[in-house]
# Entry
Amino acid sequence: MSDNPNTSLSISIVCYNSPIQELQITLRSLISALAKLKLAGQVASSTIFLVDNSNEHRLELSAFAEFDEELSAIGSELRLIKGQGNIGYGSAHNLVIHATEADYHLLLNPDVELVEDCLQQGVAYLEDNRQVAVVSPHATNGDGHKQHLCKRYPSVLTFAVRGFFPAWLKRLFYKRLARFEMHDLDEAQPCDGITIVSGCFMLCRSDLLKQVGGFDEKYFMYFEDFDLSLRLAKNGRLAYLPAMKIKHHGGHSAGKGVRHIGMFVKSGFRFFNTYGWRFIR
# Structure
């Protein structure tokens, strides 16, 4: 339990033409997790920010009016930021990161469901492990299969295999991909020696997140979470917490068409130019 009765949490969810029903599922699970966190006395207040990057069909708070009473009961609030256009994933999160005064900040995708005690587990871990800057959860996809959100530093070959090889050819590189995705992580114990964590769910210390300036806005899409992970690691440790569980319905960034492939390659060049090229290893 937090020693500070005024501990606070902010959450940013970046949306781009996100289906309302998908967002409602995410918010319903998030509010349940916040309620459990509030009941445990770990966080006194919380604010959820929906950052809508859509150019058309923008979100309206009225679409989520069903949650008003529950939010009020737990000292939480839902806010909407829109009208900035599609400024990029990292830039949209930064609108909240730079302004938040909360103790902890959660970077969350709009296609994630939280298990009810997810935030309770995560905040308790951060309270007990002051050297940790960010915590990554245990994740499954919609079919219940494990998603590997923690990564080792990648090679160019690994990304080529992962992003562009057909499934039958990927099987020949199973050991390489398994090592990159840290399949060897102990599911029974936390680990605070992670190199890279996925941006779909990052529970962070806000002060450390702000110290590094949030996301590098030169990444429009892809690799921004890799870059943020490596910069956060200079000020704290990155941890995997298997007791903190989510269901992630996304995670299929590959195969989105020529435009997305172009953005992926451009961001990859920027990442490797910044942190070092590894072609094979």
Summary: The CA atoms of residues 223 and 267 lie 6 Å apart.
